Automatic annotation (TrEMBL):
Main subcellular location: cytoplasm
Family note: Belongs to the dethiobiotin synthetase family.
CDD domains: DTBS
Function description: Catalyzes a mechanistically unusual reaction, the ATP-dependent insertion of CO2 between the N7 and N8 nitrogen atoms of 7,8-diaminopelargonic acid (DAPA, also called 7,8-diammoniononanoate) to form a ureido ring.
N-terminal signal peptide: none
Descriptive protein name: ATP-dependent dethiobiotin synthetase BioD
Cofactor: Mg(2+)
Gene3D superfamilies associated with the record: P-loop containing nucleotide triphosphate hydrolases
Annotated active site: 38
Pathway: Cofactor biosynthesis; biotin biosynthesis; biotin from 7,8-diaminononanoate: step 1/2
Subcellular location: Cytoplasm
Amino acid sequence: MSIGWFVVGTDTGIGKTHATCALLHALARRHARVCGMKPIAAGGVQTPDGLSNEDSIAHRAASTVRVRPELDNPILLPEPLSPHLAAARAGTAISFDTVLDAVTELRTRTDALVVEGAGGFLVPLSETQTGADLAAALGLPLVLVVGMRLGCLNHALLTAEAIRARGLALAGWIANRVDPDFLCPEENLAYLRTHLGAPLWADLPFSARPDPRADADRFMLPDVL
Ligand SMILES: Nc1ncnc2c1ncn2[C@@H]1O[C@H](COP(=O)(O)OP(=O)(O)OP(=O)(O)O)[C@@H](O)[C@H]1O
Ligand SMILES: C[C@H](N)[C@H](N)CCCCCC(=O)O
Ligand SMILES: [Mg+2]
């Protein structure tokens, strides 16, 4: 059974995928079989193998094991929308059992598994379920990626509160400097270090071409991992 985490973000478009891939490269320095997973993806691109999701393509490039797409991306919805809308427009419903079965099998095939959620923590998956319900069903400790930009303090603290309100564990957080014009970044980072109540796993710099392999150097993972 692998160790594993569920990666959540302060929002969509804040670089969860880059942070997930950098974490995968960092874990690959300690573990042989490391794999990324996007259980629910909304938005696909045509590839020679058919429809694929760009997050999954990035995860596969940062993973040390290759599994079939039904395992590392069991639910792929074509349109880049909130998953509840993408599912409805595809005439389907998101099945937690499908995701849980894939995670269970992946955990037997890997030493470290990193699962990237869609959007932010409370992203709707149906009229009645959200990403928080999926996180609770998976039961994995959470890693919060904070897109460092104005507004992130509120978003990060709200997300941490929502995680803890469900009895889930926030194992660590990753600062991702997505805005090169963000004023007082060090002071904002310092505030979150003091108030988020979880260890900072990495501080990832802004880059016009983010390189997850290079950013693996920036991780300060607990020794137990
Ligand atoms: N450190 C960084 N510096 C500069 N740009 C970055 C950085 N990290 C991510 N980006 C860019 O930010 C954009 C948004 O990232 P992306 O869409 O992958 O976010 P996400 O949180 O994974 O979203 P989703 O909810 O769709 O999974 C991408 O174009 C990505 O290349
Ligand atoms: C399509 C996008 N890239 C993400 N996968 C899904 C983001 C959904 C956000 C929904 C919302 O919170 O308003
Ligand atoms: Mg992503």
